Amino acid sequence: MPKIFKSTLAFLLFFLVTIPASSQCAMCKAVVENGDVSMAEGVNNGITYLMVFPYILIGLLFYFIYRYKKRVKN
Q1: Predicted confidence band at 1 (pLDDT cuts at 50, 70, 90)?
Q2: Of 30, 25, 67, the residue nearest 50 (C-alpha)
Q3: Residue 19: its pLDDT value, please?
Q4: Residue 40 contacts residue 32 (beta carbons within 8 Å)
Q5: Which H or E run includes 2?
Q6: In b/e form, how buried is each residue of 32-53, taking b as 16+ CB within 10 angstroms?
Q7: Nearest to 45 by CA among 59, 66, 31, 26
């Protein structure tokens, strides 16, 4: 079997399996559906707060890798 066929098949299989998966937890959905605007804003702020830290850590990782490679090159 050609390699491109295997990778395409794996890619399609991954998406066919993950499409039915629910993308939100029951508690977050219940809070937002309740209609309380301040509670929904709090959920959105919490999601944003939790989302920022992985990006900061990845940015720091790439910065230190860049600095290390620059130092080794000289």
Answers
A1: low
A2: 25
A3: 58
A4: yes
A5: none
A6: eeeeeeeeeeeeeeeeeeeeee
A7: 31
The predicted structure's pLDDT at residue 50: 86
- Residues 7-45 have pLDDT tens digits of 888 887 777 766 555 555 666 777 677 777 777 788 778
At residue 4, the 3 state secondary structure works out as: helix
32, 43 in Cβ contact below 8 A?
A: yes
DSSP code per residue over 6-74: HHHHHHHHHHHHHTTS--S-HHHHHHHHTT-HHHHHHHHHHHHHHHHHHHHHHHHHHHHHHHHHHHHH-
Tokens 């209609």 found at: 35
Q: Which pLDDT score is estimated for 22?
A: 56
Q: Which two tokens stand for residue 31?
A: 């809070």
